[in-house]
Amino acid sequence: MVRLTMIARVSDGLPLAEGLDRDEDPELRQYDYKSQAKAIFKRLSQTPHNMREPRVAVESGPCTFYYMLDSNTCFLTLAEKGYPKKLAFQYLEKLAGEFSRLYGGQVDAITRPYAFIKFGA
Description:
- By secondary structure, the protein is of the alpha+beta class.
- The chain is 30% helix and 30% strand.
- The protein has three helices and five strands.
- It has helices at residues 26-29, 33-45, 85-103; strands at residues 2-9, 15-20, 55-60, 63-70, 73-80.
- The longest helix has 19 residues, at 85-103.
- It is globular and about 40 Å long.
- The protein starts with a strand and ends in an 18-residue tail after the last helix.
- 27% of the residues are buried.
């Protein structure tokens, strides 16, 4: 099950949109996954373009972060460890396609965090 989804600009880590699982598990709160996701974005922004992996899975406690890069945008989701990797990346591909169709040309011009928060609603 997907627990968290975030979209950020890769060049500076600016969060663009976010969606949370409505039935948040109190046991998972202790891991502060949102902060971990932002740390992933920050690391990506500091990594040279040619050194970035386009698709990555990162284990964290009882969950796994999956992210994929598309142009200057990072699409990240958090799922329980048992969630199939293939499904996580299919979800991210669909998300990236829809986001790029709606907002792709605007990503580099945005100056404020969560400018596309309606996308996550």
